Amino acid sequence: MKIKKIFFRSLSEQGVLEKLVISIMLMVVIPLLLITYLLYTEATALLLKDNVQLMILLMVGSASCGYMLSRKIIVSIIQLTKDARSISQGNLSKRITTSEKNEINSLAQYFNQITGDLEKNIEDLKESKRIMQNVLMRIGGAMASAQRLENILELTIETLTSALNASSGAIMLLEKDILYCMVAYGIDPKQKEAVRIKQGAGVIGWVAKEKKPLSISRTQQDRRFDLEVKIGFAHKSMICAPLMCKDKILGTISVHDKQTNEEFLEDDLILLENLATQTAIAIENNRLNKDVERSYIETISALALAVEAKDPYSRGHSGRVSEYVTHLAEEFSLDRETISLLRDAALLHDIGKIGIKDDILLKPAALTPEEKRQMHRHAIIGENILKPIHSLEKVAYLVRHHQEQVNGKGYPDGIKGEEMPLPLKILIIADAYDAMTSDRPYRKKMSNEEAKRELKKYSGIYFDPKVVERFIKIV
């Protein structure tokens, strides 16, 4: 019954095993039956003669058909092998074609499907690589430009959010057991400032507590997601990774609401994890640098006090100059950052005197030309002391030039007029005024009115006229 079904079905639709059975029958079984028949019919010579020719013809035909059928099977397998080899050598656009409608055709279809999926995965990987390179290039450029950490992190979260085609993102930092938003993109600034998440609460708090990345969507009906929806960070989906440095949790980085799909892909989470590692290192290095700078500044402040201790005549000078520059800066409506810069410069402007010999610094008579040259070095010495600290770069500039004059005859570089920024002009006049109204080893102090007359006298020569005019109003 089975053999009957085999013969009645289309030959192209037969399975490989069925075709091999038919081939064996045609090439072996039928010829053997015919030979057996001939052996049993030798008695009739005439009949034998006619039958031999017919039987030989039948055997040859049967064997030929069996050979052709077997050859077709083998050729199909060889072609499949060649196509598979071409694909394995990188020709992913190649597809396996066959006229067979059996297992070979099924195998070809499976192989083509796998090849198509592989081609798509490779394209996805290329796109992920392109996105990663773009993200790292932009962030690496920001780090190389020595920007403030906040600027780098803002660029990081903005680039990452855009690269993943998401709506918003945030970097949260952990202090004690509370996470606060350091930088965010796509989130209202007021909302960002108000957000406080307890470690362990919501998706972000869970990631910070468990130190594990998490991808989640609202379709999962996970109660942890309710907090992020409530605070307005995410509405559909989000991915979050911990910021880890040497097993220490610093905070989290998260991206919210993918715009093209309901859920983030696994590749998105991998990209986030990789970037989280680099971000954590940057944050930790910044903290370490701040600790070093804080220690260095404390040392410098001690040196500044030591300078005043060396010279009893200048005791309190830096503090008074700091008050003058503050009032004058406010008079010019300068911003808080500039006012803070001026205060620091006022407190440290004479720190270079630590490198000047006492017999010059405390000399009760006028200095010789050579002694003046030595005294002039204190501005450069002060700058060199402050230079190693990146955050004091602008302070170091003011310290170097606090003895310049608007006519260009000051020291050490002889800059003048418009070359001098307003904060420097403010520091110069505040320093000069306090020096004039303080006792010195070689002279007595001036009265306030005498000092004001001196400022007016040298307005446009030593001092900027606009700054002189404003300063006289407030002293």
Textual characterization of the structure:
It is a single chain. This protein has helices at 2-8, 16-40, 45-88, 103-144, 149-163, 189-194, 202-210, 225-230, 266-310, 317-331, 336-348, 358-361, 369-386, 393-400, 422-436, 448-457, 465-474; strands at residues 166-175, 178-185, 196-198, 214-217, 237-245, 248-258. It has 475 residues and is α+β, with helices and mostly antiparallel strands. The chain has three domains: 1-131, no CATH class; 146-288, 2-Layer Sandwich (Beta-Lactamase); 311-474, Hypothetical protein af1432 (Orthogonal Bundle). Strands 3-2-1-6-5-4 form a six-stranded antiparallel sheet, sandwiched between helices. β1 (166-175) and β2 form a beta hairpin. α3 (45-88) runs parallel beside α4, α4 (103-144) runs antiparallel to α5 and α10 (317-331) packs across α15 (422-436). Residues 1-9 and 43-48 have low confidence and may be disordered.
Overview in brief:
This protein is an alpha+beta fold. It has helices spanning 2-8, 16-40, 45-88, 103-144, 149-163, 189-194, 202-210, 225-230, 266-310, 317-331, 336-348, 358-361, 369-386, 393-400, 422-436, 448-457, 465-474; strands at residues 166-175, 178-185, 196-198, 214-217, 237-245, 248-258. It folds into three domains: 1-131, no CATH class; 146-288, GAF domain (Beta-Lactamase), CATH 3.30.450.40; 311-474, Orthogonal Bundle (Hypothetical protein af1432), CATH 1.10.3210.10.
